[in-house]
């Protein structure tokens, strides 16, 4: 047998490997698409990650196909993975807005008329300095998670807003504001207050921090999948309890809910929030909105939601100091 007799066999082996990898990529793509589209509780161990994590793995498989010289198969699978990325990515329009920039002149004009609010949420990891650094942002409302001690919060309230009537201190979640705030309800996860602005306008404000997810990467272990499933069920119950508490508040008061949700922004737990609320970043976000971690933000777990009494104009995420979370800054106009 001469060397040429091996050529057809080598070609068949190359084609077999190409179709095997393409088939594996397709099965993975279909499974992931179904998981993200329907957000099954049983699949939270998958959907807790942003889609680009799986896209990277799929792209790697597709690039291997170029080694098999199956160029058309490689290009097809790469195209399908890009469709997956665009279809399930969190607010891709924010990157477009951030690229081209936007004018905030309408919000500035509304603020001069005392119809605008700058809302900031920050998980400060107990750091007083990370909150004090927000003074330069000239906020009207700060939603705090992993709060410092109450004595430190009083110091911060005096420094930022000039008095302790501007403070609602909770176990974990607290609120600082320009104006006066009265406590409505507090739990381990959230604080609810009625804010009276300097103009006399009243609104309801919620600062929250939902239970953090398990830190597990052992997807081959059934216990990992159960832990993530149980965690979603727990978070869903936490938001349902909050929504029930909000039903006891007069419906005519504008509502802002923000904080550390500790969840992928596409998670179905957000359906437990009042139907009147909208994610401000989805409406007016600009740039890279991810908030965890501060140095390498890969997921947008810190968010600000508002009802239809507000028009979100500009929402961004910015680096913070002395914490592992970024801040979220939302400029809203009161209608």
TrEMBL record:
The keyword Membrane applies. It comes from the Bacteria. The chain crosses the membrane at residues 16-38, 44-65, 72-89. Keywords: Membrane, Transmembrane, Transmembrane helix. This is Endonuclease/exonuclease/phosphatase domain-containing protein. It comes from Gimesia alba. InterPro entries: Endo/exonu/phosph_ase_sf, Endo/exonuclease/phosphatase. Residues 133-325 form the Endonuclease/exonuclease/phosphatase domain. One of its GO terms (molecular function) is catalytic activity. Gene3D superfamilies: Endonuclease/exonuclease/phosphatase (3.60.10.10).
């Amino acid at each position: 047998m001469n060397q040429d007799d091996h050529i057809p066999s080598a070609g068949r082996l190359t084609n077999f490997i190409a179709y095997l990898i393409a088939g594996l990529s397709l099965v993975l793509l279909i499974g992931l698409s179904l998981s993200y589209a329907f957000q099954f509780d049983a699949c939270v161990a998958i959907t807790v990650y942003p889609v680009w994590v799986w896209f990277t793995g799929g792209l790697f498989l597709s690039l291997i196909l170029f080694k098999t010289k199956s160029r058309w198969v490689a290009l097809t699978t790469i195209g399908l993975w890009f469709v997956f990325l665009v279809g399930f990515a969190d607010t891709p329009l924010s990157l477009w807005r951030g690229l081209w920039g936007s004018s905030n002149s309408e919000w500035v004009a509304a603020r001069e008329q005392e119809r605008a609010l700058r809302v900031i949420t920050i998980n400060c990891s107990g750091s007083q300095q990370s909150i004090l650094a927000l003074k330069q942002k000239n906020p009207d409302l700060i939603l705090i998670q992993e709060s410092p001690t109450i004595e430190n919060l009083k110091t911060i309230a005096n420094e930022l807003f000039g008095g302790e009537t501007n403070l609602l201190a909770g176990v974990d979640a607290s609120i600082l504001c320009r104006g006066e705030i009265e406590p409505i309800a507090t739990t381990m996860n959230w604080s609810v207050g009625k804010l009276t602005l300097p103009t006399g306008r009243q609104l309801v404000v919620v600062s929250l921090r939902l239970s953090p997810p398990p830190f597990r990467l052992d997807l081959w272990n059934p216990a990992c999948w159960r832990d993530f499933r149980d965690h979603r069920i727990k978070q869903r119950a936490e938001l349902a309890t909050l929504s029930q508490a909000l039903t006891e508040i007069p419906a005519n008061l504008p509502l802002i809910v923000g904080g550390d949700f500790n969840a992928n922004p596409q998670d179905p737990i957000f359906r437990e929030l009042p139907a009147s609320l909208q994610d401000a970043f989805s409406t007016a976000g600009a740039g890279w909105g991810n908030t965890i971690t501060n140095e390498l933000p890969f997921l947008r777990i810190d968010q600000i939601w508002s009802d239809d009494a507000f028009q979100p104009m500009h929402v961004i995420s910015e680096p913070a100091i002395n914490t592992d979370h970024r801040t979220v800054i939302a400029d809203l106009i009161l209608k």
